[in-house]
Design a protein that fits this description.
Length: 461
Amino acid sequence: MEFDTIAAISTPSGEGAIAIVRLSGPKAIEIADKVFRAPSGKVLASQATHTIHYGHLQDPWTEEVVEEVMVSFMKAPKTFTREDVIEINCHGGIVSVNRVLSLVLRAGARLAEPGEFTKRAFLNGRIDLSQAEAVMDLIRAKTDRAMDVALGQMEGRLSKLIGTLRQALLESIAQMEVNIDYPEYDDVEEMTRPVMLEKSLWVRSEIERLLQTSSQGKILREGLSTVIIGRPNVGKSSLLNSLVQENKAIVTEIAGTTRDIIEEYVNVRGVPLRLVDTAGIRETEDIVERIGVERSRKVLKEADLILYVLNYSEALTAEDELLFEAVKDMDYIVVINKTDLPQKIDLGQVQQLAGNKRLVTTSLIEEEGIDQLEESIAELFFEGELEAGDMTYVSNARHISLLHQAHQTISDAIEAAEMDVPVDMIQIDVTRTWEILGEIIGDTADDGLLNQLFSQFCLGK
Ligand code: GDP
Ligand code: ZN
């Protein structure tokens, strides 16, 4: 297949100080050389592939210098689209980016349609459909970590697993074919059923595992629900403020004046957190009653992470111990705040109550200890149960829905096999499962579906 050369702004407008104009196609290098001037005078075509070059863009017709740029030069086929790719990094203002884009368009490129770069990668066999969709997630990814997940998917983890599942299904379909071709041999039927059942049960359990990780994919996109608890006045709102680094929550001198639940979305070292300050859910000064309040229980129970704040300058109270009890089965970090004041807390006792949980000391007023807290949060997340790096996440709504469908059809097949339904009837459900899984990686997708998918992409991807 031969394509023309396309160009578009590939960074979302308004995000970051650098913007990229990307070119892809057989004339990408030629077009770039028409407008790019390196101080050395060397043309890009003479450079090694996958190198970056500093220089200026010059309008070849007026000889006016348009922009100071860095140009990435990547020769096919080791590029995202498997075509020659040029990326022009320029200062991010709308005016300058548009100037660069219009220059390369005048020099011979065509403005890309939304999603056209990704579509080319797909059409050139560089990525499959689920990978193409991962790019779409990438564009929307809120944090670096969510981006890693999207990237992991791009690398084809999900595709690989789906491929293995389909292979297993194919093998049992083949076995059933034998069966259907030789209906007179009962022993073949005898052999087919257990093979088919075993493979189907395995496929189903893998689908279930994938569906389970889908909620973790959601966590990564929407943030870990993080609840800040502690007695009045220990510094919960101050902690929320420190983490948000803006003064959105109300910090007061008087205990118990924060009324509403405050939620903030922050990115702590790549971990997306949705922070909740529980000061607002306090209905009474009495902490025992407070824990009893339905609403706070619910908030606690739904939390992925608890930040439990204690006062360094006060002895532990019975209330504090009750809170330790309330969170004992959850992921929490103990934050001992106000270390700028004289110590009254018994750290040994805290250690004992906290068991193997992490302890961090802070003085929020002196902006001390926040780094260690952030470090602990990141550690807990990246080294903890979630083990984000090793898992295959499904974070795409279309994939999740297809997996549910596949789960249904494979369950139908299993049920039928257990009920001694004729093998050719079971084969229908197994084949259907194979088709549905194929839709995830674009194998049985028709053109209509493809176009619909690609038109969702942002311009420049
Ligand atoms: P909350 O009721 O737990 O939300 O506590 P706040 O965040 O509203 O803080 C209560 C009071 O403690 C405020 O006057 C804060 O300025 C003060 N405070 C917070 N952190 C520190 C700290 O590290 N040291 C000192 N000395 N005061 C702090
Ligand atoms: Zn508060």
